[in-house]
Amino acid sequence: MPNRHVVMRNIDRPATDVVDRLAQAGVSTVHEAIGRRGFAGTGLEPNQQNVRVAGPAVTVSSHPGDNLMIHAAVEVCRPGDILVVTTTSPSTDGMFGELLAASLAARGVIGLVTAAGVRDTAELREMGFHVWARSVSAQGTVKASPGSVNVPVTLGGVTVSPGDVVVADDDGVVVVPLAEAEEAAQLAEKRIAKEATTREVLRSGTLGVDYYGLRARLAELGVTYQD
Fold first, then answer.
1. Which pLDDT band holds residue 7 (cuts at 50, 70, 90)?
2. Which of 136, 202, 226, 227 sits between 20 and 30 A of 152, alpha carbons compared?
C-alpha cells in the first residue's frame, strides 16, 4: 500500500515567459479569457495592495493548526514559485508568519496563497512577501502531523496541481492548469487588445447598449423606456 504522505521533490513547471505574460494580464482578465474558470473564490484576501504576481504552484496539504508540511515544502521550492497551502478540514489558524516567509524568500518564492490563516501581517508587508489568505489570526500552530507536498489540492473549490500557474492580485486568485498556460496567455493578450479598442469607443461617448447591441436584448426581455 502506497504511503499516504509524500513530498514530491520534482515537478514540471511552465515556461517563465508564459508565467510573466499571465502576471501582466492579471486575475480578472485571465479568468474571463479562459472561460470564467479557475477563480479560487472571494474568501482569499490580499495582505497587500497594488501587487500582481504569477508563478508555478508548489502545493501543500496540511493538518489544520499544523504547519509542519509548510516547513517541509520550503526545500523543494524554486525561484518564482508560489506556495499554495491547504488544510484537510477548515482552519483559520495563523499557520504562516514572518519567519517562514524569510525562509521561503531565501529560496526565491514570491508569494503564498492559503486556505488557512496567516499572522505577522505588518511584517510580511514590510519585507515585501506577498500573501493571499482566508484569515488573519494570532493563533499559533504546532508541528506534529504528517501531510503532503506537491500533490493535487483543492483551493476555494478549484483543483490545484503542482506546476499550475497561480495568478494573484487585488481581485483575488485564479489558477491556470499547466497544460493550458500557453493558450491562456494568448487568450488573455487577445482580450487585452479587444478591451483596449472597446475602451476607446466608450470613452468617445458611445453607449454600451449600442456598442454591444443590447437594445434588441432589452426589448426581447420586455424592458420598455418611459419618459
1. very high
2. 136
pLDDT digits (tens, 9 = 90+) for 137-192: 999 899 999 999 999 999 999 999 999 999 999 999 999 999 999 999 999 999 99
Give the 3-state secondary structure of residue 54.
Answer: strand
Distances (CA, A) of 82 to 154, 156, 190: 15, 16, 26
- Residue spans of beta strands (DSSP E) within 80-206: 82-87, 94-96, 111-118, 130-136, 148-149, 153-155, 158-160, 165-169, 172-176
Number of neighbours of residue 92 by Cβ within 10 angstroms? 17
Residue with cell 497594488: 50
Quick check: 2 pLDDT over 70?
Answer: no
Residue with cell 494570532: 138
Cα angle, residue 25 at apex, residues 19 and 30 outer, rounded to 5°: 90
Q: Please report, for residues 58, 72, 103, 160, 181, the alpha-carbon distance to residue 81 in angstroms, rounded to integers and kept in the order given.
A: 7, 15, 13, 14, 15
Helix (H, G, I), strand (E, B) or coil at 65: coil
Q: Using CA atoms, how far apart are residues 208 and 91, in angstroms rounded to an integer?
A: 44
Whether 217 shows a pLDDT value over 60: the answer reads yes
Q: If DSSP codes are grouped into helix, strand and coil, which group holds residue 103?
A: helix
